[in-house]
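# nightly structure sweep
# worker-07 picked up a monomer target from the shared queue
# config: single-sequence mode, recycle default, output format = structure tokens
# input follows
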Amino acid sequence: MEPDVVPAIAIFGANASGKSNFLRALSTMFRMIRTSATRPDEPLPFSPYLLTRTPQAETMFEVATRFNGIRYDYGFTYNNESITGEWLRSWPKGRQRTLFDRKGDDDGWYFGDSLSGGNLSLARATRSDALLLSTAGILRHEILSPLYEQFASLLHNTGTNDLPQTLQQTLQSLATKSDRQLAITKLLAHADLGVGSIVVEEDKLSEEVREQTRKLYEALMPNMSADELSERLDRATLSPQLHHASADGMIGLPFGWESVGTQNFLALLGPILDRLEAGGVLIVDEIDTSLHPRLVSELVRLFQSPLTNRRQAQLILSTHDVTVMMNAGDYGVLERDQLWFVEKDANGTSTVYPLSDFSPRKSEVFSRSYLNGRYGAVPAIDNHSFSNLWND
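# output follows
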């Protein structure tokens, strides 16, 4: 049976670090796919669970996805020294087919009959701390290289800590994509932010700041080439100016005067439109930062609609905003299998599970039941517990 694919998943939980760590784990997996073969000096990102007296032996990642209508299951295990296992399976006609299976030792290789190409040479070229799929991408393996490209470009993530960088990428897309200016302008206008148009300007370093920056680079990075140093000094920072409607016509305001919510909304539009145009998975940590619940719902709705999400992109978001899980009125954008929770037990272990595990009734208001503790993943705080501290 093929895995269920939903266009949007929202993750809730009282433990913010638990949600962030879950999303960070997804990012770690795909970063390893992209870079493990090209960075031999970089240690494996092995972070064992610390709240236990028994050290974790290894980490396992596995993902099920679909490329060109075919399901693929890919996964691997590793410790702080090497890849201890790796496998890739497909279901081209509804039946499982193993493309390769790797064990930790040098002789632990299995290649399926359907995997043509220099498989043994590929195995010999794969370092013990590198993934076979990553190495196949570098060596242009006949079958695995295209799959590597698809896996490597599948996941994209952003969050509140990345918003300045994300904003620059969004503004860059305005210059490189002809239809992006119109799309972003329309979305800003329909968000009821009072914005009618956007102008992007370049902010280059002054001569004084340029000289100070050059000296700093030379001191901290003495091996940097003259061309790279010049490229960094010439790199301009893009600065947007939003034009607002007023009684005297359209007035442009400095971007720093805009609300944090408006700034974050503009920054997120770039990666959201990128995924809607190209497909893939977008992870947004704490998407509701300074955004009105209606704006968050409308951004999620872009992935839910086949009209705007023709490439079957997927959005995975973490949030504390329970209005996202409301199943009444205009807020009802997510179904029960799209709502997930992160619960931390007494030992500090986090578990991820869907709302559908509780088989809620059709008439049940998800947000109210969640706040009342029916689904777990809420703070264990008694009423008036904070104020009672003064009585103690």
